[in-house]
Amino acid sequence: MSIQERIEALRSLMEKRRIDIYIVPTADYHQSEYVGEHFKAREFITGFTGSAGTAVITLTEAGLWTDARYFIQAAGQLVGTSITLRKMGEPDVPTIEEYLKETLPEGGTIGFDGRTIPVSEGQKYEKLVEEKGGKLLYAEDLIDAVWETRPEISKKPVFPLGLQYAGKSVSEKLADIRKEMKKCGADFHVLTTLDDICWMLNIRGDDVDYFPLVLSYAAVTMDGVKLYIDGNKIDGPLRDALAANGVSLSPYHDIYEDIKKLKEESVLLLDESKLNYALYKDIPEKVRMINKPNPEILMKAMKNEVEVSNIRKAQIKDSVAHVRFMKWLKENVGKIRITETSASDKLDEFRKEMGNFLRPSFAPISAFGEHAAMAHYSAAPETEAELKKGSFLLTDTGAGFYEGSTDITRTYALGEVPQQLKDDFTIVAISNLSLAGVQFLKGSCGLTLDYAARKPFWDRHLDFKHGTGHGVGYLLNIHEGPSGIRWRYRAGEIQELEKGMVLTDEPGIYVEGSHGIRLENELLVCEGEKNEFGQFMYFDTITLIPFDLDAINPEMMKEEEKKLLNDYHKKVYETLVPYLTEEEKAWLKVYTREI
Questions:
Q1: Whole-model pTM above 0.85?
Q2: How do residues 586-595 score in pLDDT, each as one tens digit?
Q3: CA–CA separation, 572 and 584 (whole Å)
Q4: Cα gap 510→513, rounded to integer Å
Q5: CA–CA separation, 592 and 581 (whole Å)
Q6: What is the CATH number of the domain that holds 210?
Q7: Partner of 525 for a Cys bridge, out of 225, 267, 384, 501, CB 3.0 to 4.6 A?
Q8: Do 292 and 355 lie in a common domain?
Q9: What is the distance between the alpha carbons of residues 388 and 413, in angstroms, rounded to a whole number?
Q10: Cα 76 to Cα 47, 72, 95, 486, distances in angstroms
Q11: How many structural domains comprise the chain?
């Protein structure tokens, strides 16, 4: 069935249900950033495979809204369809809400699967149809009726994350959560976010590609936890361990009926930004709700001492794998056939050799030459390039070790590259090092610090259209709140930086039709000196991989910038030497030499 045939089948159902506009987001029932195969409804109806975007289908038009990371990719994948690409944030491009206001007729109806829409969006649509004297239909998934070969919801098993990795027991975590509940006067706490639930119960799974998450909901009371999950996914020993912590199991979908039965005197702690609209609408009207961020979010982001120790080990493992990959790449490009995919596979081979490797921590980006200009390019057999000398290879990849998740980007010069590419690479390196080297007062957030990374770009009237950094989960989501580093305000990312948080540092330059460069390290937030001015904080760079000196133009760098690079490379060499062969040590010595 072609994309157009799928849209026409959907429109036929819309006409029968008297729906004027149907909205298909990129979402599961848990507001996850990345979703399992069963939930890829937007991809099914549009053919666009990016991780972010919303399709809006009317009886005569179809549009796809996505952000700057995917403009090039989406434009290519929508060719030959009747779907219009709406570039979010660009001048003269209406927001979805503006488009709906303009397009929905008086008395019209908007439809969507309420389980896949967050509360805030659902409320906007609710208000919009009220203004138009129309209706909202959110109780039916029309895509399901069209998608005849839809994959089933994952049934893969759940596994425990041992205390040697989690660092804190389930009982301790539940005690901390109940303290927060008591503090705000709540006796019932509903959780729908998969990473929060997995963190709370020290469990992991395989329900979302690359991310070891478990499809579930949870309800926490002062004396128990109800976990809504397919019970066949949990074996006897894990079931017993959960029961010992007061965790009982209920069928996955039962939460929708159970929430309707909440007693009127209940006080419910929830995070509307993390809840889906359908579940929210099932809460009895007289139940008092306390809407504030899930307490698990901040607890999870501030890694405990065991987690930090493990994360450092994971970073060393991945750094050694990257050094071996970089050496192999430099020595073999132009001698043997290497493609974007085979290069990525080779890097994972080196990772597997390090032990305790579970899987890549997200879909790998391996992009040669002009492909790297697409910030979230994905190599495919029909489009992937063979690596050749004279340009860059960008790899944005990650590893899921039991010791933690990594997210690392490197850009490698293959042979001699043009001067402009070296100059661009050097700007990105200066930006990365400048952010990593800042000291700041406790209370600062990413909005405060982003200027350190942007200044080398803005001084040259350049910029990059993505955030500079994001939080990283421990064998959970690779993008983790509540902190991030960007210059524009973004809800959910303005939490002050706290000791134990891990964030990325990933500036880039993207020149369409030519090349792309990104350099990404992970930074651990640490406490520094405390004096009469307050508690000072600093970043410890825990990713330890050379910045390719074959692509650096030292003449562009100030002395303090050279020192930042030289100090970083000295740290790389001294930390990794114990794990390398004599040949690898000699090679690394060259690529971490002082400039």
A1: yes
A2: 999 999 999 9
A3: 13
A4: 9
A5: 16
A6: 3.40.350.10
A7: 501
A8: no
A9: 10
A10: 10, 6, 22, 28
A11: 3
